[in-house]
């Protein structure tokens, strides 16, 4: 099967402008969309490599789903609304079933979040599958939720519950045992994360700084602290842990909660006077939002008052 047949068969659902008349999609030299007045464009890109970001035997539907989910999550972290995405894929062999399932997973989440696939590139790779997604979003001109804007006294909030994806990953990679067959219940959190798009858009008027948790709470919160030149005091007990992992040994849970990656929940900071508004947003969106600590002036990250050396823990590809 040629490159062109693969594109036509698996990635041309929005050939030219089928999805949205305003957008020129797959099938021309460039995808084209209009820049709206009073809006900025947010762009992000993420690469997923077989055996590094996903196991070779992972359901291809879930791989397709996740490869767009993690990019949508980056839009969520700045409060952007999705416009569309590009998918570049390198595959070592033509595998009909794999491509069918992968593209189905990709299109399912793309439709769920109104983020059409408007272009990309398809090529043969040497050994592993390589996936790169680039995403575009809209953001109101006057607003921003960035890593460098946390203010002393802000409350530190997180969405969702912690622990599942890291424990699923460590069971799948043979680092810990599948105690009580827990994997079956938590694998979905690793393979199909929920991008917090609606939450991000709501928070843009209220939060000062935000990040999505991809490399672990400590490491990602630290990106906010360093960029904003502030510190934080975290109350460990206030971090919500998933009921599904609650019975596991404390050391496994603690690692997953503080350092576990692949969570894709938002961590954000907001002034105290926004507390009630944020509680209302949580109710309205039916998303769990919890205050886990405060921003401080001393530029260190403390957990229950004890300074934490974050550097040695969170995920880093080159360590
Ligand atoms: P070019 O030679 O101009 O780079 P290609 O032959 O690579 O064009 O691609 C043809 C069309 O198909 C382009 O519109 C491109 O954006 C789109 N395309 C290629 N691969 C993919 C893919 N994996 N997903 C979505 N669109 C794709
Ligand atoms: Mg090309």
- CATH superfamily grouping of the largest domain: PurM-like C-terminal domain
Strand content: 15-25%
Largest sheet: number of strands, sense, barrel closure:
7 strands, mixed
Q: Identify the bound ligands.
A: adenosine-5'-diphosphate, magnesium ion
Can you give the helix content as a percent range?
Answer: 25-40%
CATH architecture of the largest domain: Alpha-Beta Complex
Q: Report the end-to-end length measured between terminal Cα atoms.
A: 39 Å
Structure class: alpha+beta
- Compressed to H and E, one letter per element, the order equals HEHEHEEEHHHEHEHEHEEE
Q: What is the CATH class of the largest domain?
A: Alpha Beta
The number of helical segments is: 9
CATH fold-level name of the largest domain: Phosphoribosyl-aminoimidazole Synthetase, Chain A, domain 2
Pathway: Cofactor biosynthesis; thiamine diphosphate biosynthesis; thiamine diphosphate from thiamine phosphate: step 1/1
Domain PurM-like N-terminal: 27-138
Binding site for Mg(2+) 4: 29, 44, 74
Organism: Candidatus Kinetoplastidibacterium kentomonadis
